[in-house]
Design brief:
121 residues, alpha+beta, Aminopeptidase, five-stranded antiparallel β-sheet, 4 helices
């Protein structure tokens, strides 16, 4: 999956993203704002496990935020069921060096297209 946006691309995770995810995710400021499952320090082992896990999910619900081809963050969602089936919880992180550039705002705008693709298959 690939969505080309103004400031970034939102795309499927690739096994070649290991080094870039470690470079951007191994940051205490990011870790402090995420769920407990996000490790710190963030290692190559963590990156490999994460990419392997998200690539196996059906439907695909977690994506790389890429700038100039490099994975610099992640955006994903959890679809709810029952009466909450029309909603989703969204989560994201972005490498600190890219904060303040409108990248997450751009990626969040694409969230509706991603959720709709996941729901329809």
């Amino acid at each position: 999956m690939l969505l080309k946006l103004v400031t970034c691309d939102v795309r499927s995770w690739q096994t070649s993203d290991v080094d870039s995810i470690v470079a951007h995710a191994n940051n205490r400021k990011i870790w402090l704002n995420l769920r407990d499952a996000f490790p710190h320090p963030y290692t190559r082992h963590d990156a490999r496990d994460f990419i392997r896990a998200v690539r196996q999910r059906e439907p695909e619900t977690t994506f790389a935020i890429a700038v100039d081809g490099e994975a610099v963050g992640s955006i994903g969602f959890v679809m709810h069921s029952d009466v909450e089936r029309v909603s989703a919880e969204i989560g994201y992180w972005l490498g600190e060096a890219l904060w303040g550039r409108g990248i997450v705002a751009d990626a969040l705008k694409a969230r509706h297209r991603l959720r709709d693709r996941a729901r329809t298959g």
